[in-house]
């Protein structure tokens, strides 16, 4: 029988037999299908060996135990969890929970830790506040809590809600000095010791696929109770679900976007994918083809394997530049769609991935007499742009990745996804920016069926599939109709 010594962040298996250790290691590793390994291990993992002790993240305990049960290996759980309680649901004053919010909080309190899969507009911040209040009411005192968010704007929004619920004396913005409830970005938390906190709530926990963020959560060694909140709680293309599940725990509750739309809590949406013609033939394709022939014949050297990987990366950069960033036909279509929607009285948010793409679009708008603000990570006045977007002062705004998640923009009526790409999760996060207002008007999503290269075609099909998975109807079109823009 093996002994699993369970702590808040790590599980240790002292004296674990070699064959069992290998089984556990295999359960606690994953491979990035997009990665190229020049040597050594071809998997990333979250376990490590200290002398004869096997160690892996507590969030993966459920998976490990399931695997041990499947092969008939006996084990005992030896808990060293520190602060563990079983609180009842208590809602902060002035807050009223929707039925699924109440259900989500009750599940979280019962399970003790794990991931709540909550789509955009589900009220993740309110659920976080209810969790904090429930723990505080159980202990009759504020439990030291840290809430982690992705961006500074998320810190501001969460801080405002917590101060309304709990008062200024208990809530701190970033510093955490002398306060019970601290709201902080993952970036700042990665440079702090989180051991003083007994409760951790990680918003947009899918971002913990980054090793730095995962490491930050691991320092919360006294917080067995930890919850991840995410609109896209699984299915990362790079396989790094392993990181955020390890840091928090398995998915314990789901409320998908299509269910919110059906219940009337999110805006109904329709997507139009405009056809973008093209014929792209990057020069590196000939070199790639030659190396692929060698690979198929088994004659590709290790040096040429690395060269092939670099060439394929260069191919995507060339295709992205010619097919998306510098594609005049596509960029004019973006500008035309935005101005037509604005003339129909609708507010428009254009999402881009690259800063140079956003600048190029802004210049096109200026050329036809439109002054359109572009908010990105390095832009001055981005807070003012965001305020103007919320108030309706800015009718067209270009935004980079800072608007991809954790940002509340409820007035958006037309969302133009100009970024391209194939990530299902990233596309769903972008879609969520426009689904926050379930008013009279539905959300119109404008995307592009890029046909200039087989890579672009594949990416376009992936984005279409992401919209359909979220309950959004998708139509291919050559142009936009005035009826669709005004609907």
From TrEMBL:
Gene3D superfamilies: P-loop containing nucleotide triphosphate hydrolases. Keywords: ATP-binding, Helicase, Hydrolase, Nucleotide-binding. PROSITE patterns: HELICASE_ATP_BIND_1 (PS51192). Coiled coil: none annotated. PANTHER family: GENERAL TRANSCRIPTION AND DNA REPAIR FACTOR IIH HELICASE SUBUNIT XPB, RAD25/XP-B DNA REPAIR HELICASE. SUPFAM superfamilies: P-loop containing nucleoside triphosphate hydrolases. Residues 105-251 form the Helicase ATP-binding domain. This is Helicase ATP-binding domain-containing protein. One of its GO terms (molecular function) is hydrolase activity. Pfam families: Helicase_C, ResIII. The keyword Cytoplasm does not apply. It comes from marine sediment metagenome. The keyword Hydrolase applies.
């Amino acid at each position: 029988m093996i002994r699993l010594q369970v702590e808040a962040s790590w599980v240790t298996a002292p004296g674990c037999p070699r064959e069992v250790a290998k089984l556990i290691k295999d359960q606690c590793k994953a491979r990035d299908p997009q990665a190229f390994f020049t040597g050594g291990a071809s998997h990333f993992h979250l376990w490590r060996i200290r002398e004869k002790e096997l160690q892996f993240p507590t969030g993966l305990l459920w998976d490990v135990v399931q695997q041990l049960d499947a092969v008939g290996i006996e084990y005992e759980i030896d808990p060293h969890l520190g602060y563990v309680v079983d609180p009842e649901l208590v809602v902060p004053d002035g807050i009223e929970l929707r039925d699924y919010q109440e259900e989500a909080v009750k599940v979280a309190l019962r399970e003790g830790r794990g991931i709540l899969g909550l789509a955009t507009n589900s009220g993740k911040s309110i659920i976080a506040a209810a969790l904090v209040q429930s723990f505080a009411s159980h202990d009759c005192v504020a439990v030291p809590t840290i809430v982690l968010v992705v961006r500074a704007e998320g810190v501001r929004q969460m801080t405002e809600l917590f101060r309304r619920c709990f008062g200024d004396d208990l809530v701190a913005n970033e510093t955490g000095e002398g306060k019970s409830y601290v709201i902080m970005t993952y970036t700042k938390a990665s440079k702090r010791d989180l051991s003083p906190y007994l409760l951790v709530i990680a918003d947009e926990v899918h971002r913990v696929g980054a090793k730095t963020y995962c490491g930050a959560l691991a320092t919360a060694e006294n917080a067995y109770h930890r919850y991840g909140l995410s609109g896209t709680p699984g299915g990362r293309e790079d396989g790094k679900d392993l990181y955020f599940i390890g840091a928090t725990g398995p998915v314990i509750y789901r409320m998908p976007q299509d269910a919110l739309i059906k219940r009337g809590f999110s805006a109904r949406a329709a997507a139009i994918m405009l056809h973008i013609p093209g014929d792209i033939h990057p020069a590196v394709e000939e070199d790639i083809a030659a190396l692929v022939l060698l690979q198929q014949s088994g004659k590709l050297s290790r040096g040429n394997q690395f060269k092939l990987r670099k060439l394929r990366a260069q191919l995507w950069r060339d295709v992205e530049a010619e097919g998306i960033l510098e594609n005049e036909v596509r960029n004019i279509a973006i500008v035309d769609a935005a101005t037509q929607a604005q003339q129909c009285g609708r507010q428009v948010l254009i999402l881009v991935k690259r800063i140079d793409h956003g600048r190029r679009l802004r210049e096109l708008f200026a050329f036809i007499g439109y002054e359109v603000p572009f908010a990105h990570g390095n832009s001055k006045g981005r807070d003012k742009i965001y305020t103007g977007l919320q108030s309706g002062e800015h009718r067209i705004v270009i935004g980079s990745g800072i608007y991809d998640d954790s940002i509340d923009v409820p007035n958006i009526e037309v969302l133009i996804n100009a970024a391209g790409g194939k990530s299902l999760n990233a596309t769903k996060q972008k879609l969520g920016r426009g689904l926050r207002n379930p008013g009279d008007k539905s959300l119109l999503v404008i995307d592009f069926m890029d046909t200039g290269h087989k890579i672009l075609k594949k990416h376009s099909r992936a984005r279409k599939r992401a919209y359909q998975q979220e309950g959004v109807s998708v139509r291919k079109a050559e142009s936009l109709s005035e009826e669709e823009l005004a609907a």
